[in-house]
Amino acid sequence: MRFHCRIIVKKNNIVFTDIDFPAVGQVWLAQDRFKHNFTVIHGHGGIIGITQYEHEISDQTLLTCVPHVSHYNGFQQDLKQIAEIIHQKGSLLFVDAYQSAGHIPINVKDMDIDILAAGTRKYMLGIPGTAFLYIKRELAEQFKPQMTGWFVKDRDSAFELFDSRFAAGAKRFETGTPSFAGLYAADAALKILLEAGTDRIGSYLRKLAGFSLQYAAEKELQIAGPQTVEGRTSLISVYAEDAAGIEAKLRRKNIITSARKDIIRIAPHFYSTKDEMKYAIDEISALLSN
């Protein structure tokens, strides 16, 4: 579906969700142009039903921001289904894939995603300082960058002060000199991921998630998010009153987790094993029972 600038500029509503990573919503809240034109879709137990998009998106919605996967509880959204709904309303779809890229297969064309951003620090096995942006080519040609650098120009090596021509496609949204250390790390990481194959990684982690959920239930732990592998990733979030304290104790046992509000988050990847997940869950159970 093509979107023409003449239509887009008339829209003034931005939609995001309360399961977005906080920084995503904060970006929009900082935009004075849209400060009276936000719609926030609220999840139920950290989960958003597909029908909520049908009800909350209007013909005045310019952009709908959704996370592919919730950073809090591992809830995974059906992007293809969401795209179909919001495109029927005339909205663009922005996807935050930071919590999914690298361990879940993503096909931006099949899912009909308009804009997608991801970083290398998490499941893409890189380090901070490198991010990726995808924009449909026909959309990129319509947008004018609001922040520029010497890489956004049509000829970035020409060093022409008054040359205002932007490069074609998503390249126009690059800025200045990137973090080369981060790029070298990202290149090595991507080679590993491509060799392993995201389809195989996704299949393996789905089985690992099933094991982890079952074992956590046997240990009588309370798991946030979907209770089965349907609609979730292998990220396992265990409710804990003193999440930060438990995270610190686990770290002393060489178990690396993340405390997020009232949960302890375990984020395995293709190199993680059932025995490692069992060990982590056992230790969390022991700490919670003390």
From TrEMBL:
Gene3D superfamilies, alphabetized: Aspartate Aminotransferase, domain 1, Type I PLP-dependent aspartate aminotransferase-like (Major domain)
EC class (word): hydrolase
Keyword RNA-binding: no
TM regions (residue ranges): none
Pfam families reported in the protein's UniProt record: Aminotran_5
Keyword Metal-binding tagged: no
SUPFAM superfamilies: PLP-dependent transferases (SSF53383)
PROSITE patterns: AA_TRANSFER_CLASS_5
Stretches assigned to the Aminotransferase class V domain: 9-244
Cofactor: pyridoxal 5'-phosphate
Key words, A-Z: Hydrolase, Pyridoxal phosphate
Entry GO MF terms: kynureninase activity
Recorded superkingdom: Bacteria
Record InterPro entries: Aminotrans_V_dom, Aminotrans_V_PyrdxlP_BS, PyrdxlP-dep_Trfase, PyrdxlP-dep_Trfase_major, PyrdxlP-dep_Trfase_small
Enzyme Commission code: 3.7.1.3
UniProt record similarity statement: Belongs to the class-V pyridoxal-phosphate-dependent aminotransferase family.
Protein name: Kynureninase
Organism: Bacillus sonorensis
Lineage: Bacteria, Bacillati, Bacillota, Bacilli, Bacillales
Gene it is expressed from: kynU
